[in-house]
Design goal:
Number of helices of chain A: 4
Helix content of chain A: 25-40%
Shape of chain A: globular
Strand content of chain A: 25-35%
CATH class of chain A: Alpha Beta
Number of helices of chain B: 5
Largest sheet of chain B: 5 strands, parallel
Largest sheet of chain A: 5 strands, parallel
CATH class of one domain in chain B: Alpha Beta
CATH superfamily of one domain in chain B: DsrEFH-like
Number of strands of chain B: 5
CATH architecture of chain A: 3-Layer(aba) Sandwich
Oligomer: heterodimer
Strand content of chain B: 15-25%
Largest interface: A-B, 19 and 22 residues
Order of helices and strands of chain A: EHEHEHEHE
Number of strands of chain A: 5
Number of domains of chain A: 1
Strand order of the largest sheet of chain B: 4-3-2-1-5
Amino acid sequence: MKLAVFLSDLRRTEDTYDRLKADKLGVILVENGVYHAVLKEGGKDSPILSKAGANFYVLSDDLETRGFTAAQVNSKVKVVSYGDIVDLIMNDYEKTAWL
Amino acid sequence: MGALKLCFVVQRPPYKSENPRLALTHSISSQTAEIHLEDGETVVPTLIFVGDGVLNATKNQQAMKLYGVTSTESHIKNGLLIDMPIWVCKEDMERLGLKEDQMIADAEDMGADLKTKFVSFAEIQKEIEACPHLLFF
């Protein structure tokens, strides 16, 4: 399964994300999920970014809305536009999920 | 006669929900409640950001440019413009890796004299204790 997962919150109350497995996993950080790409809580990367084998993306519009720029994004995460996300969904992943 | 102190405490990050924005708009408009008070009585609001709520106070927010909505930053600056004290918890900024130069420090571009205060939670605790009316968002 090729799965693209949208994460839109800073805090999570479920552990679905931790248990998710896919042959190819894309994690798209949108809305308040973008904080995972820029904050270093307690000096550490977000645990979201420790998912093994996943590709991480962050939506530039939601990032800039919140006062951050691409220069502040964690090196594990690729900054993408709305158009890029459409391309990812259409070309790179078979399914999408919103957590 | 006297001042009626209100503390608006924002503990959630911006934009995903309307909740933090309501704290901003309610605190800015709270002084209009004076029409219901006795002559000489005033409403004195303080807007406080704690926990993940400090993320409301990052500067260079582009909400208007990208989504056509007023930014949380513009609301905070309007608060400073009407001389409403705005406090941001230093410990929570440090926990999230945010530095003061990333935060809204003033609204000089809008002509405001008041500046944001970056304070310890101990100071916030004192303010909360001194405030008879607390509103958490």
